Automatic annotation (TrEMBL), chains A, B:
Pathway(s) this gene product operates in, as recorded in its UniProt entry: Amino-acid biosynthesis; L-leucine biosynthesis; L-leucine from 3-methyl-2-oxobutanoate: step 3/4
Every Isopropylmalate dehydrogenase-like domain range: 12-353
MF annotations from Gene Ontology: 3-isopropylmalate dehydrogenase activity
Main location (coarse class): cytoplasm
EC number: 1.1.1.85
Residues holding substrate: R102, R112, R140, D231
SMART domains: Iso_dh
NCBIfam families: PRK03437.1
Pfam families: Iso_dh
Protein name: 3-isopropylmalate dehydrogenase
Binding site residues for Mg(2+): D231, D255, D259
């Protein structure tokens, strides 16, 4: 991982508010970012997502991608239209916009911290929560695995149809994300790293992940390691999540693990994520884990906390760890003082957190 | 689904006790089966698993498979050796024995009921449990998807290694399992079926699953249907599992969903499963979801309940639904009277359940 260049002047942000609640939560994230940041941001807004696609047929024009590439970082709200919109086939936006950005900008570390903040409600029982604090980070591989779009279909629509999806895993891709995960584990007090895969069934990919994990582990004797299958990981996340410190896993398993992690730590209203290019060859992208929630869009009822915390990850990535920590502390304070049963408008949450800075 | 032939005489069971706690829990399942069944069973025991492999290098000789094929049903305990045994590479037993049986015997319906029995402890909070009873069935596809073993690796052990895993999905394979799931949903009071997949990323396979699901749904207007992505399914399973009635999903997603389902319903000590060939062209196989737990093997501390409930699924499949229901009722009674904090020996649990029949 390259350390952030020390920057003093202004930094350029590409903002993709997206659809549904995206623009509302992004506005609050920007509000907080601007108050917390030691540098000024020059923001450029890019209208991408379901709305643009439905209006123009465009998903991510090459010229727009080239422009976005010129920024220091990207802040994304959420993209996605109404469920089952016949004009918006599944995958169009996901593959064409979100995954295209992750792949083109080489976001090979999809970073998802999972922490049960004081004051937020877990669906887990008191007995499970009593086992210890839930505070782990998932390092999800972001540029390979079953997400590559490899595969295809033959004789579509006939009884002889066959459809394949190919999970592509390379030593190049696995080693770099495993190295990143070890580096992150090394910086944490517990220094523990768990590999999650399904080596007993996906033996080709599993063997590659396992060997590189063991190989990099040998260079990090201070990091405690273990391995668990994805199915067993479900059980541990539900019954003993405190056991986890850092998890490294592939793109699809990471998608699954992080949504469960978000659920047990109080819901995706709080889960932040970074699509990180640790080599800094292209801008990294920060986004809440939640979707565009079109059913509640425009009503100022969405919780912007996940977007605000994604802003903190962005600041940290750009070399402002103190400012990131200040945002996190403000969110923590806000969460622990939220009166149960009451609800604030999206902008009120942003205001309250900004006011603490 | 072919209905079971009415049988009066004896039925032939192939018993694969397996490794670790497998033999102990299988003994109790057989004990209960023999008391509950209206027909006599002729059991043949097959020693297969880690122990045999380590001693002889044999996993599943063709001649043994041919013999097993001649039985009416298979009862399996658990297979698997000590974790990280260097003489037992990951996948050898899973691919060579368990999955080979599922694939060769065309177990395309991997049936996993998930029910929170009274008296058993869920890791979910009171607030989540108050939403309703957890009582759903997962119909996991068992012969396709990422489990086919398709894929491979190139330049293994070099920095240029590439490993692939191919998920294979056919209209033939998807339609038959979807039809089975609709038939099962139709027989349940709520008549609700949820498709779980990741259509927005795995677009080729997702489109096939989605289209066949919609097509079969049109023939079953009495069944309410919905669709959720695998990641969102994690959230619902953790925060509102009562919403599910029947779930149909692919082989890998089914593996993941059913372990989480087992966790939230009190642990894999209770989760039963059937690897069912609904066309009855080969014997179906019944097994607890849990593994061989070598660390507690031979100590008579394993809970045989999952194996016993798997025996009930076996009886039901062989055309003895009343006997199956009696076992379930006996297990339910046993569970609700288990004194918290005490523990019984494996054989005591079997005795107690058998005594209620
Ligand atoms: C929207 C979808 C493509 C995406 C993913 O699967 O990665 C989302 O679920 C996420 O986790 O960011
Ligand atoms: C042991 C393994 C091959 C198996 C699977 O992945 O199907 C197990 O996890 C299960 O769910 O029955």
């Amino acid at each position: 991982q390259q350390s952030a260049p020390t920057s003093t002047g202004s930094q350029a942000l590409a903002i993709i508010p997206g659809d549904g609640i995206g623009p509302e939560v992004t506005a609050e994230a920007l509000k907080v970012l601007e108050v917390a940041s030691p540098v000024t941001f020059e923001s450029t807004r890019y209208d991408l997502g379901a709305e643009r696609y439905l209006a123009t047929g465009e998903v991510l024009p090459d010229s727009v991608l080239a422009e976005i590439r010129g920024h220091d970082a990207i802040l994304l709200g959420a993209v996605g239209g109404k469920p089952n919109d016949p004009n918006l086939p599944p995958g169009i936006l996901e593959r064409g916009l979100l995954l295209r950005l992750r792949f083109e900008l080489d976001h090979y570390v999809n970073l998802r911290p999972s922490r049960l903040f004081p004051g937020s409600t877990s669906p887990l029982s008191e007995a499970v929560l009593a086992k210890g604090d839930i505070d782990f980070v998932v390092v999800r591989e972001g540029t390979e695995g079953p997400y590559t779009g490899n595969g295809g279909a033959l004789r579509v629509g006939t009884p002889a149809e066959i459809a394949t999806e190919v999970s592509v895993n390379t030593a190049y891709g696995v080693e770099r994300v495993v190295r990143d995960a070890f580096a992150r584990a090394e910086k944490r007090p517990r220094k523990k790293l768990t590999l999650v895969h399904k080596t007993n069934v996906l033996t080709h990919a599993g063997s590659l992940w396992w060997r590189l994990f063991e190989q990099v582990a040998a260079e990090h004797p201070d990091v405690t390691t273990d391995y668990i299958h994805i199915d067993a990981a479900m059980i541990f996340l539900a019954t003993d999540p405190a056991r986890f410190d850092v998890i490294v896993t592939d793109n699809l398993f990471g998608d699954i693990v992080t949504d469960l992690a978000a659920a047990i730590t109080g819901g995706i209203g709080l889960a932040a994520s970074g699509n990180v290019n640790p080599d800094r060859t292209a801008p990294s992208m920060f986004e809440p884990v939640h979707g565009s929630a079109p059913d509640i869009a425009g009503q100022q009822v969405a919780d912007p906390t996940a977007a605000i915390l994604s802003g903190a990850l962005l600041l940290d990535h750009l070399g402002h760890p103190e400012a990131a920590a200040r945002i996190e502390a403000a969110v923590l304070a806000d969460l622990s003082e939220r009166a149960p049963g009451t609800s604030r408008r999206t902008s009120e949450v942003g205001d309250a957190i900004a006011a603490r800075l």
